[in-house]
Write a structure and sequence with these properties.
By secondary structure, the chain is α+β, with helices and mostly antiparallel strands. It has two domains: about 45 residues; about 200 residues, Endonuclease I-creI. Helix content is about 45%, strand content about 15%. The protein contains eleven helices and eight strands. The strands form two sheets. The chain has a four-stranded antiparallel sheet. A hairpin with a 4-residue loop joins strand 1 and strand 2. It is elongated and about 80 Å long.
Length: about 270
């Protein structure tokens, strides 16, 4: 049987023919022969696509997470202001954190780059009339999602009613617990002139948070359930305890400057 000979230029022409036929960028599954030759002549499908003039996003390897102060802070943000997507059916795997503040978006980008040597994707949406954009900063990694779900017990999908503080955080050093707490306050803390409040739909999470505060010698008030929002609320209101909370923001580590400025005024 004669071997079919084809040049790189002919392969690129074949890509354009398929594009015109389908009215979109070709995919591997559209032509198995083309895919086979892309690997033989260009080394990979992505290299063929790049040579044909398409913008190509290459798969990024990710450095996986060790538990330290920075990753504990990341988990605090993720629990309060993030989401894990893990859908095997459509192969959608990502870990995302959300913010409406451009300066916080930039800080999260630096944090992710620092932790994982990974450049995250960013998208934004506006809600309502003349509102701030809501940024999604995402890491598209099945492995990272699996690690966070299995090792840190943070569930994928809707989690607001069932989430709890990871056992690995509760059983760890004071520095780790403080960094996690700073992430929780940055993500979901309400800082008012004479008190700091944290709300959650998960009673488990608020009760564990009260225990975590006690372990840091910070007292909080009773846990209240809001009838309007169906959330559980914890308040830190005395001068002594607020002073201790302020001290966790005296750091050169990652932090939301907006929250740091607010807490300095309490």
């Amino acid at each position: 049987m004669k071997k079919i000979k084809i040049s790189k230029n002919e392969l690129i022409k074949r890509v354009k023919i398929i594009e015109n036929k389908l009215n979109r960028k070709p995919k591997k599954r559209d032509d198995n022969t083309l895919y086979c030759y892309s690997r033989k002549l260009f080394g990979s499908w992505n290299n063929l696509m790049k040579s044909a003039g398409y913008k190509v996003i290459y798969y990024q390897k990710i450095n996986f997470m060790d538990l330290n102060e920075d990753s504990a802070y990341f988990l605090g943000l993720l629990i309060t202001d993030g989401h894990i997507y893990f859908n095997k059916k459509i192969k959608n795997y990502k870990v995302a954190i959300y913010t409406s503040y451009p300066e916080e978006k930039e800080m999260i980008l630096k944090l992710i780059q620092h932790l994982f040597s990974y450049t995250p994707g960013i998208s934004s949406r506006r809600y309502g009339f003349n509102k701030k954009p809501n940024y999604e900063i995402r890491i598209s990694s099945k492995k990272l999602a699996e690690i966070i779900i299995s090792e840190y017990e943070i569930p994928a999908g809707p989690k607001s009613l069932i989430v709890d503080i990871p056992k690995k955080i509760m059983d760890n050093s004071i520095k780790i617990r403080i960094a996690f707490l700073r992430g929780v306050i940055d993500g979901d803390g309400s800082i008012q002139p004479n008190q700091i409040k944290i709300n959650s739909g998960s009673e488990k999470f608020i009760r564990s948070l009260k225990e975590l505060l006690i372990s840091l010698t910070i007292s909080s008030g009773k846990i209240y359930k809001s009838k309007k929002s169906e959330t559980f609320e914890l308040k830190i209101a005395t001068r002594k305890n607020i002073k201790k909370l302020k001290s966790i923001y005296n750091t050169n580590k990652f932090v939301y400057l907006r929250k740091k400025e607010q807490i300095d005024k309490v």
